[in-house]
Design goal:
Blueprint: E1 10-13, E2 20-23, H1 32-35, H2 37-61, H3 68-107, H4 110-120, E3 124-137, E4 142-155, E5 161-165, E6 168-170, E7 180-188, E8 191-193, E9 198-200, E10 204-207, E11 210-214, E12 219-231, E13 234-239, E14 244-245, E15 248-252, E16 257-263, E17 270-273, E18 276-278, E19 282-283, E20 288-295, H5 296-304
Parallel strand pairs: 3-15
Antiparallel strand pairs: 1-2, 3-4, 4-12, 5-11, 6-10, 7-8, 7-12, 9-10, 13-20, 14-19, 15-18, 16-20, 17-18
């Protein structure tokens, strides 16, 4: 059975929950003045308040009676405008958050709701991650991994946040050398701070945590340089507390060593050039960067054994 009537596709509009269906593309787009009508109205109220105050001061200068009531009305209009804009912005954010949480509760299984809400509440993002890993041979069984890392953080929320900065390195109790934190510091608003205090535990060395205040959209750049003593056939993981956008890892190794770098992510790393790896995506907190190395000759020999 056919019809000559034009079929209009129903498209969901997620401005409310449960979703309501509207017809056509135009219904999904709001004009600018419609989305900002409360702000425009409050600007008008503010303008009226300012005009009333101007009238009050002009009449006061000309000494035309008692105009105190007019003054109070003007102040009331201005206060109402300021409160109106502030409350409107707060309510918008709260409604968006409530709608998002409602959609999570509706769509996801119980096992994932808490994880998605945890991600939603993330307010700080690492927007730049560059890491250089250099392997240096010590003897036939031991090497040193020297790591220099630079991370840039941004407050992506609309509120002030505090970012805890620190780094830790494990101690492996090798006879040849010990783990070290060579450098640690951060730059904020062009001011460099590289003063740090190290702490020891029974198995690790760490920098005493520093909490850095960040205003909305404000950034801070952290760097640190560490060393660990490892075996010639070994592995190293790095875990970070904040989401990391498009991390890049550069590996430098001595002759005869094979390298494999991966990310604890749903897609594989890209090897841009020999020894340079990048993840096109965002590492979530506690997802790791993984580096594995081994002696090439021994690895090939082992692989060819029956």
């Amino acid at each position: 059975m056919s019809s000559n009537k034009r079929c209009t596709t129903l498209r969901p509009w997620y401005g409310a929950w449960p979703p309501k269906a509207y017809r056509g593309e135009g219904a999904m787009k709001k004009k600018w003045w419609e989305s900002q009508r409360v702000t425009i109205m409050m600007f008008g109220v503010l303008l009226i308040g300012i005009i009333i105050l101007l009238v009050y001061y002009i009449c006061k200068l000309e000494q035309h009676g008692d105009w105190q009531l007019i003054h109070d009305i003007g102040i009331a209009f201005i206060v109402a405008a300021i409160l109106g804009v502030g409350i409107d912005q707060i309510l918008r954010r709260q409604l968006a958050e409530d709608a998002f949480k409602a959609s999570i509760g509706y769509l996801l299984p119980n096992e994932l709701k808490g994880e998605m809400e945890w991600i939603y509440d993330t307010h700080i993002l690492c927007v730049e991650h560059n890491q250089i890993c250099e392997l240096r041979q010590v003897d036939n069984d031991t090497c040193i991994i020297h790591v220099h890392t630079l991370r840039k953080f941004r407050n992506i929320s609309s509120s002030n946040e505090h970012l805890p900065l620190g780094v830790a390195v494990d101690e492996w109790f090798r006879k040849t050398d010990a783990s070290k934190i060579i450098a640690f510091g951060y730059t904020k608003l062009g001011v460099k701070n590289d003063i740090f205090e190290t702490l020891k535990s029974t198995h690790s060395l760490s920098v005493k945590e520093q909490k850095i205040p960040l205003a909305p959209e404000e950034e801070v750049t952290l760097w640190h340089e560490i060393e660990e003593v490892k075996h010639m056939n070994d592995a190293q993981d790095w875990i970070f507390a904040y989401p990391t956008l498009n991390p890049t890892v550069i590996v430098k190794a001595f002759e005869g060593i094979s390298i494999d770098v991966g990310f604890g992510y749903r897609s594989a790393a890209q090897e841009l050039t020999k020894g340079t790896y990048r993840l096109k995506g965002t590492l979530l907190p506690n997802q790791r960067i993984e580096m594995r190395w081994w002696e090439k000759e021994k690895g090939e020999k082992w692989a060819n054994e029956p």
